[in-house]
Structures are given as structure tokens and as C-alpha cells.
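Human: I would love a firmer grasp of how sequence relates to backbone shape in proteins. Take your time, and here it is.
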Amino acid sequence: MAVTDERVPSLISSHVDVIYRVYGAKKMGTVSGAPGNASLKRLLKGRGSIGGVREVHAVKDVSFVAYHGESIGIVGRNGSGKSTLLRALAGLIPPTNGEIYTAGTPALLGVNAVLMRELSGERNVMIGGQALGLTPKQVREKMDDIVSFAGVEDYIDLPMKAYSSGMAARLRFAISTAAVPDILMIDEALATGDAEFQARSRERVAEIREAAGTVFLVSHSDSTVRAMCDRALWLDKGRLVMDGPANEVCDAYQAARSKTSPKKAGAKKPAPKAPATKTPAGASAPAAEKSAATKPAPADKPASAENPSPAENPAPAEKPAPDAGTTSAEDAPR
């Protein structure tokens, strides 16, 4: 008897491809060095960007099914298509090929989520809450909870341009989770904030999961994915490499990353030098004579006539002592 899966799907991704075009991306040579300089060619060609069009295949044939109550992490290297896939699942980017089905309205929370810098934090809460489908009355009822969760009670009347990046990230998360969304998508937003805020964020994500919501989390932190997700997707160069339990996927991803990461070659240790022997000041001459005596003399090496070495030249013969009755020219009185 076949076992039926009683879980209810919340999102279906069927053979999704995302291809986008980049204009002005025609290759004109290397940036510097041979065979040419791209900047110089740009100047010679004329002003403006080079009129080339390049297609980037960011997501390639990705298929999976997400269910209500699941928390799914998406891992992969930079440029593997994680954020692009998340934006396509949220409906912000139309897929080039394939279909995406959602049971409910997805809410994307990212580090680049737009907050109006000129408006106050309170006005941004009102606008963001209504964008999630809440009425103005419901937003006012939740205002205190949102402000308290973000920890910006003393700054809620200031314009957003006066907020730090961490304060703005906390307020974005608090706004996005004010109304329990059917599908919450978090793109690196939990990486900004202290440990206390991250703990509160995990509690809020757990509440959303208990309310039968689905959570997608893109993060470069394996520990965050292991702690907050029960399932993980591993993307590499736009393709879905592995789909399974979070711990197993993270282990496989870590193993693959450790194999492909370049290893630094160990520096060669210099050959040990012979320790220099220190000669006492009083015994310098005898020690030098002793060391010179221990060195083997070169075998029958003729002395150079042009640059005779002092060591090779024989000592001058001693003059014979003068006889007792003989007076040398030097000793003669002048």
C-alpha cells in the first residue's frame, strides 16, 4: 500500500531558470597588460559605455517542493544564485523558464530592503505594515511591539538617515514579521545585529513556523542554518546540488568547500647556519692561527703574479745579524 504524504505544499518550484541581461558588458581586452588596455580602448572608441549585451544564467533548472511549517536554508558560495532564486520565489523576478506556485503571499526580508531615509522610523513602520496587508489601525496596534522588538524606542521619531545599519536592519526585520506571512524569505538579514537580537529573531522565526508558515533563509553561516532550519538546499553555479536535512547538507557543503579551497604552500625553512664561534679578546691571535692551521692548504696552486695573496707569499728571509766588528749603514753615525 502506497504511503501518501499528508503535508500541504506552500511553494512549488518547477524547472526554474533565471537569465538576465547585462548591458555594456562587451569584452575589449584585459584591464591592464598585454594584449591591450580596456580603459585605453574605451577612451579611443569614444565616450559612453561599450555597447555589448551579455546574458547571465543565474539559476539553472531548480525544482523542489516546500511545505507548510518548514524552515529551509539555502547555502552556497558567493555568486551561486541564492539571492536570485529567493527573489524569483518572492515574485520580484519573473523566471525565464519554468513555473513557481505559491499558496499565499511571500514576504522578502533582505539587507537591501527599502526604507525611506528622509522619513521617520514611525512613518516607515506605517508604510511597511500596510504594504504587508495590514490596515492602518492594525499597524498602530502593533506599533509598540515593532518598536520594542527593534530596540529603537528612543529613535523612532528620527529620520532613517540618522539610524545606524544595525538599527535599520532590526527595524526592517520587525516590520516584516509584524504580520505573520504565509512565506517569509530572509536574505542575510539575520547577519546584522548582536547576539541578543539574533536570539530574538530565532524565536520570531519559530513562532512563524508554528503558525504553519514557511521560512526560507539565505545565510553564509552554517551554524545559523543548522540552528534555525530543518531542511537545506545547496546551490552551486545556479544548480541545485543537494536537498535534504540541514545538518547533512551543511556537512556535504563544508566537505566540498574544504576540498576546493586552495591550500597555502608552506614556506621553506632556511637551512640552519653553523653557529659562529666567539673568540675571546685576549686569545684572538692564537685562535686565528689555530683555525688557519686546521684549514688544508691548496694543493700546488701557483701564486698569482699580479695579485699575490699575503697568505701565499713566503715571509721575507731574516737579515743576517752583523758581526761584532762590523757597523751597518743604518747604525752608522751621520
